[in-house]
Design goal:
Blueprint: H1 2-20, E1 28-35, E2 40-46, E3 52-53, E4 58-62, E5 67-72, E6 76-81, E7 85-90, E8 94-95, E9 99-108, E10 115-121, E11 124-130, H2 141-162
Antiparallel strand pairs: 1-2, 2-9, 3-8, 4-7, 4-10, 5-9, 6-7, 10-11
Helix pairs in contact: 1-2
Length: about 160
């Protein structure tokens, strides 16, 4: 009887974990550096294996604050910008598992905390947020529910072993 409870609890935990996972996007837009004297914020672009970012594809940044100048590297062209948003397109085909360092640089009088990005590449559309301070752990509702259910289940299992 005790082994069936343990088997049921283990199976429930595994199924819950599998159902709560999400596929990772290969595309990554991340904060690289900040020069406080110049007020510049630089961002890197990382593509996954088999991913292509071509002219006509785009990346849009929103949630900006006080951006005076949106600069880009030789890899990108600015297609539009104002103080709260900026749009970019690649100049050439960017592909493969590569990181393009300092691909986009923004100059702002304000501190740029969380920036929203969205766009499309050969693997489809993508979106996310980036900030100068990395978030080490981001909880989700599913994770909380499965953790709570797991603790309750293990508590009952511990009690059944004592008796």
């Amino acid at each position: 009887m005790k082994n069936t409870r343990l088997l049921f609890l283990t199976a429930t935990t595994i199924v819950g974990t599998v159902l709560s996972t999400t596929a990772a996007q290969a595309f990554d837009f991340s904060f690289a550096s900040h020069n406080s004297g110049a007020g510049t914020f630089s961002y890197d672009l990382t593509l996954g294996a088999g991913e292509t970012f071509s002219p006509g594809d785009s990346i849009a940044l929103t949630g900006l604050s006080g951006v005076a100048v949106a600069n880009s590297s030789s890899d990108f062209t600015i297609t539009g910008s104002d103080s709260v948003s900026a749009n970019f397109q690649p100049n050439t085909v960017l592909s493969g598992a590569n990181t393009f360092t300092n691909a986009i640089t923004l100059t702002s009088n304000d501190s740029l905390e969380i920036i929203n990005y969205s766009g499309n590449s050969s693997l489809g559309s993508f979106s996310g947020t980036t900030s100068p301070v990395a978030v080490p752990f981001e909880p989700s509702a599913n994770l909380g529910i499965f953790t709570l259910l797991g603790l309750i289940g293990f508590s009952h299992l511990r009690k059944s072993f004592k008796s």
